[in-house]
Write a structure and sequence with these properties.
48% of the residues lie in helices and 11% in strands. The chain contains seven helices and four strands. Strands 2-1-3-4 form a four-stranded parallel β-sheet. α2 packs parallel to α4 and α6 runs antiparallel to α7. The longest helix is centred in the middle third of the chain and has 19 residues.
């Protein structure tokens, strides 16, 4: 099966209730029926507590699967073991997601939210989508004291690519 061919998709909407998920799908689909190959779910164990195995079982039942969307990563990440940094816990959980990708040949999309507590004090209470490039650039300059040079360069690179006009 080529990469451009459609196939089953597992969508884990882990911050939604079934009613909220159904309402959101109705809005997005404009009254059309959901794609036959879409499997929405509102619960999944954390990856270390069997979530990776549950997803693998779904993938085995859907051999032509193309993608698994996990919305939101924090819900399947699991708890951080004592003495382990948040980075190491993220890395371990992402490793489990990567093993699913490797074993089943599917894309695994992990949705992650920016913690507003890091952004709001510097940018005010405006919604993130309402911020200008200059607002974000000022925020990055202020964060430079706390971010590594590599991370700062990466963020600036992404910002530049997304704001440049063709």
């Amino acid at each position: 099966m080529g990469c451009h061919e459609p196939g089953p998709v597992l969508y884990l909407a882990l911050e939604d209730t079934p009613r909220r998920l159904q309402s959101g799908m109705r809005k997005i689909l404009g009254g059309q029926a959901a794609p036959r190959d879409l499997t929405p779910a509102t619960s999944c164990p954390t990856l270390p507590q069997g979530g990776d195995e549950a997803i693998a079982r779904w993938l085995e039942r859907h051999p032509g699967a193309r993608m698994v969307v996990i919305d939101v990563f924090a819900k399947v990440r699991g708890t951080t073991a004592p003495g382990l940094s948040a980075y190491d816990a993220d890395y371990a959980a992402m490793g489990r997601a990567k093993r699913l990708t490797d074993a089943h040949g599917v894309a695994v999309v992990l949705v992650h939210h920016v913690r507003k507590i890091h952004v709001i004090p510097a940018l005010g209470k405006r919604k993130l989508r309402d911020l200008s490039v200059e607002d974000v650039d000022k925020w990055l300059a202020a964060k430079a004291k706390h971010l590594s040079t590599w991370t700062l360069k990466l963020i600036h690179s992404v910002l530049n690519r997304s704001t440049k006009t063709p």
